[in-house]
Amino acid sequence: xxxxxxxxxFIDESGEISAPCSRxxxxxxxxxVSLVMxxxxxxxxxxxxxxxxxxxNLRERDVNDRHAVHSYNLIRGDKPYRAMGIKQRRKxxxxxxxxxxSCSQIGVSAKRIIIDRRLYLDSDAPExxxxxxxxxxxxxxxxxxxxxxxxxxxxxxxxxxKYDVIKIYYDNGQTWLGQIIHEVMDRQIPQxxxxxxxxxxxxxxxxxxxxxxxxxxxxxxxxxxxxxxxxNDVSFFGVSSNKQARSAKEVGQKGQSYIIRQTRExxxxxxxxxxxxxxxxxxxxx
Length: 286
Hints:
This protein has helices spanning 45-57, 71-76, 86-105, 135-155, 157-160, 175-188, 206-225, 231-237, 241-251, 256-278; strands spanning 6-14, 30-39, 109-116, 165-170, 194-198.
């Protein structure tokens, strides 16, 4: 009997659908769903071994080959990375980016949905200041996400039907999204061909961590588009504060504005490099 062709899909999301947002700010503006697709005949053991070795070699407390890399927290220095120096955080971020690139080079692919929640604020909402998304608009927003997911599956249906088994991995972090995923998959793919793996732990699957990275990269991409990188972004992707201080001292007060502008340009360039690398996943067929 021929071995069944199997596809694994890892799904993650970024953003809170009901969180307040403002028309004049991109803070908390976007809701993102990322999907990483791994045909099981593709062997990931080499890139997994490489990232595991690199994580172990960091010699950081609570960081080892079982650690789930949370890329957004790395940039911000949030838990569990508060005690970790920025150089080590940058290394970890580069490790997960390199892992994603290695996966793209051997056939892992990805899809994403990006929703600008500002479009769902009530029409009479002011142009400035935080506004809550109304219950009615939340309903419309969820419907739009459903439509986007359905369209994504429909567009790639012929490729998906090449597989005998499709396994969906989602941690069910947002129950309503899990329900939509069930609904759209059941509508497009015979139920007997789909297996839902819910409540999964990110540390058990490196590709789940790549899905997390894709959400982070998508947010960074939107920040670049609107020229709204945060101070945390600038600090993480920029030159060291000591180097900036030395440069400012050397050029004097008149040259400090140039140093700041140059730093921003360097940051933009580094973010663009990371975005370009990870986005290679979107170029692969399922």
